[in-house]
Structure formats: C-alpha cells, structure tokens
Amino acid sequence: MDRNSSTERTPLTSLTESFERYLLDKGKGRGGDGGNYRRNAARELKRFAEWAAGDRGGDDWTGIVPDDVDREPTFEDLDERVFREYARHLGGDRGLKQNTVQTYYRYISAWCGWCVNEGYLEAHYAQRASAMAPLPEDDGRKPGDQQAWTSEQRHALTRHVDEQAREAIEPYTTLPEDTDPLDTQRARYAALKAARDRALVFVLAYTAVRVGELLRDPNDPRRRGVRWEDLSLDDGSMDVYRKKQQWDAASLPDPVISPLRSYHQLMDPPTERWPVFPTFDQRTLAELVREELAERGERPEAITEQRDEYARDLLLALDEDIRPPSITTDGARSILQRLSEAAEIDIDHPKHDYLAPHGGRRGMGEVLVRAFGYTVAARYLDNSEEMVRERYSHIEAGELGDVATEALSEVDGSVNDRHE
C-alpha cells in the first residue's frame, strides 16, 4: 500500500485495513519487511482481529460486532470496554505469564495510539484506566527495564530540535519587508511550531515534570496544561498541578530557560493565560475560531473572509485572542514519535520504538540519583525517597556490584600475593 495514499478513514473502516499501514510505519524496513517488532506486532494484531471477530475466546464469545449485523469488526465497534474485555481475555485461559500478558497488550495499545494519530479513532481507548484494569501486575519487569532516555539520546533529540528551530526561526526573522503577508505568516507558523517542539522536548528532557502535569488531560478539568502565567523564567520555576492533587513549584533548570524565552518572544501571546503548548491541530483550531467569532456576532461570510486572510487559524487565534486548548499527553507522544524518527535516534526498547515522554523524567532521575543520591533526586522528582530507591534500585545494585568486584579483586589479590 502507498504510504502517501489518501485512503478514507472513517468509523466504518475495518480494523484489518489499518494493519498494513501501521506495520509499514513501525517496521524497521521501510518497505515493510523485517524487524522483530513488526513480526511480533503483526502476530498480535492478527490474534486481536480474530478475537474481535469472535474466532478466538470462550465458546460463548461471539465478537464485538452486534449479533444482528453481518460484517467485519470496524473502528465504530471499538471503545474502552472492548480493550478491557481483551485485557481480560489475555489474562484468562491462555495460560500466559503475567509479564507476557502485559507485553501482548502493549502491542495492541501501540496500534490503538497510532490509530488516534492517523484519524481512525477519537481517543486512545487502550490506555484508559478502566481498559487496563484487568491486566495483571507485570512480575517480570524491573524498574530499570522501564524506558529512560540515555545521555546520548537526550543530547541527540535536543540537538535535533534546536537545529530545526534555528533553521525555521532565522528565515522568518530575516524576511524582507516587502514579503507577501501570507508568506510571512507561513514562515511565522513554521517557526512557532519548531519553537514549540523545541521547548516541549527541553522541558520533558530536563525538568523531570510528569507529562500529565505539564499538558491537558481531557478527563480532568484541573489539568488544563501549563499557561505562561504559571512560568517564572527569571526565577527558574513553574507551577504545576502535581500527582498528589495540589499545586506546587517545579524547577526550570538553565537548559530550559533559553528555548522558553525564545518561544515566548516568537509567540507573543495576547495574554499570559495562553497555554505554553497549544494544539496546532487544524481541525480543532478551525472549529474553535468559527465558534468564537460567531459568538462575538460575526456573520458566516465575514468569518470566512477573515480566515482567508490568514495562512493558519492559529495565527488568527493569536491576533483575536481566541485561546486554544493545550495539547494532550497523547499529542505529546505523537510529537515525540515524529521527532524521534526525524532525528534517527537509535532506540532499543521492548515497549517503545520512540523516546516516550515519561522516559525523559526517568532519564533525569537516573542522572540525579547517580550524581547526588536518592534524597536530592526524590525532591526534584516530587517523590518519596523510598519510592525513588525502589524505582532506581538497579543503580544501587550496579554500584554495589562494582564495590563487590573491587573488594574481591583486593582480597583475591592479597591472597595471591601471600601464596607467591
């Protein structure tokens, strides 16, 4: 299938129609051949499709299509209850180990997330808490097995987004005065998008703030995403709504300040109540602009004329102070998937083939524990020292292993000396 084809994606699209495109995107070989991940994902997607059609499961399982309908399962049939039932199926009568159940479910969850980004689904149902509730605890995963950005990966990603931002901002800021207004707007939009991506990556890479504290959660109105008024770049701090259900100040270290300052200057938000990381989704912004201008008394014809004067609705929203929503955590994952691929970063992880947002936090945790110990790391990570010790126990185990090796070397060496 041509990856650039304009295949229509609707709720009535069958599940299997999306598999080939997904596997092409995820396979190591761009032609769709090779790659352990692709093979394993293809196997699990086939099993999921058979289960959804009623060909797997218990004797009384008839699939997710209503009994009075004769067709293949489509995206219209999917919701979080379906994924909850599949999680229950995986953990049921197949005799799978707990960590194997988790692994198999992650293949389906990754496909579900891709379907959201590609427009097949409206929400990442597989990641909903109710969908994942039947999954057993993963008794095979150690804290150190969870993704953490390495220093090399962090530097590669931040260097890439910094270069992309510079390459987009400089042409915009050096445009001749007689440049066509729409061309100027296009250049500004490209600069804004690159600057937003750079700022987001630097914040995720260096602050160790949870992505759910930074961006919007559609299911929790208190988590509306950080706004510019929540940031104090002079003090190097940012107010976030913490996991413990209260507002608290998080640190903004030096590497983060410059990208945020440059981005703020470029955006020049009409008020400081604007989100730091607004959505750039064209459909969302188009609907928002039309509705807001209509509420302000503008007629449909006037709204169309006004929108035609702008290359992008985001720029109209900035001029008219029509505040867009922040991107969601799913949106951040989509951005990082795109950037990880563009930066050609080498990633070897069983769950993620890109640098996931939580990996930035865990990567900083690794750095802090190694450099300053558990107490300082716990304060920066907004966690108890006990929890940090548990999650980063592999570091202490490795260090103790080095101590044991050194001790054995000294003792064995002294024994050998006595026998010589």
Low-confidence spans: pLDDT under 50, at least 5 residues? 1-7, 28-34, 139-144
Mean pLDDT, as a whole number?
86
Rg from Cα: 25 Å
Profile the largest sheet. 3 strands, antiparallel
Helix and strand run: HHHHHHHHEEEHHHHHHHHH
In spatial order, strands of the major sheet run: 1-2-3
The tally of beta strands, per DSSP, is 3
Proportion of strand residues: under 5%
Name the descriptors:
mainly alpha; 17 helices; 3% strand; globular; DNA binding; DNA recombination; SAM-like_dom
Please tell me about this protein's structure:
By secondary structure, this protein is mainly alpha-helical. The protein is 56% helix and 3% strand. It is built from 17 helices and 3 strands. The chain has helices spanning 16-26, 36-52, 80-90, 98-118, 129-132, 151-173, 181-206, 211-214, 254-267, 282-295, 300-308, 313-320, 329-342, 357-372, 374-381, 385-391, 393-419; strands at 231-232, 237-241, 247-251. A 3-stranded antiparallel beta sheet has the order 1-2-3, with no helix packed on it. Strand 1 (231-232) and strand 2 (237-241) form a beta hairpin. The radius of gyration is 25 Å and the shape is globular. The N and C termini lie far apart (72 Å). Mean pLDDT is 86; it is low at 1-7, 28-34 and 139-144.
What secondary-structure arrangement, pairings included, does this model have?
Layout: H1 16-26, H2 36-52, H3 80-90, H4 98-118, H5 129-132, H6 151-173, H7 181-206, H8 211-214, E1 231-232, E2 237-241, E3 247-251, H9 254-267, H10 282-295, H11 300-308, H12 313-320, H13 329-342, H14 357-372, H15 374-381, H16 385-391, H17 393-419
Antiparallel strand pairs: 1-2, 2-3
Helix pairs in contact: 1-2, 2-4, 6-7, 7-9, 10-12, 14-15, 15-16
Domain Tyr recombinase: 169-405
GO biological process, one term: DNA recombination
Pfam family, one: Phage_int_SAM_5
